[in-house]
Write a structure and sequence with these properties.
The chain is an alpha+beta fold. It has one domain: Alpha-Beta Plaits (2-Layer Sandwich), CATH 3.30.70. It contains three helices and three strands, in the order H-E-H-E-E-H. Strands 1-3-2 form a three-stranded antiparallel beta sheet. The chain is globular. The N and C termini lie far apart (about 30 Å).
Length: about 110
């Protein structure tokens, strides 16, 4: 990939960066609300074009949320799609807040 971006890629990048700025306060609220719970940070990446990467990361986000809801445990999550600082590569960060007794259940979906 060349260092120069196409117009649609620049537009996608700018929209994602603006969205991330708006949700920062939501993360701080959730973090404060769950400060006594266990925490885990998971990062998902992919290797395609910027548009394909964003589409794939969105699918991963949806699928991972479904996996968590199927566990039927008390887990809070905060997820954000970020863009790398050098090459604008999209990746997904998921912060989980959970009770220590549920760690083994979370570990099962991570290992599958």
């Amino acid at each position: 990939m060349t260092s120069q971006l196409h117009g649609y890629e620049t537009n996608i990048i700018n929209k994602q960066r603006a969205k991330n700025k708006k949700i920062w306060s939501s993360y701080l609220y959730l973090f404060d609300k769950n400060k006594e719970r266990e925490k885990a940070l998971i990062t998902f990446t992919t290797s395609k074009t910027i548009r394909e990467k964003l589409d794939e990361i969105r699918l991963i986000k949806k699928y991972f949320s479904k996996l968590l809801s199927n566990l039927k445990i008390d887990v809070s999550q905060f997820s954000v799609i970020e863009l790398g600082s050098k090459k604008n590569n999209p990746h997904l960060h998921v912060q989980l807040f959970f009770d220590s007794k549920d760690f083994s259940k979370l570990e099962k979906i991570y290992n599958n």
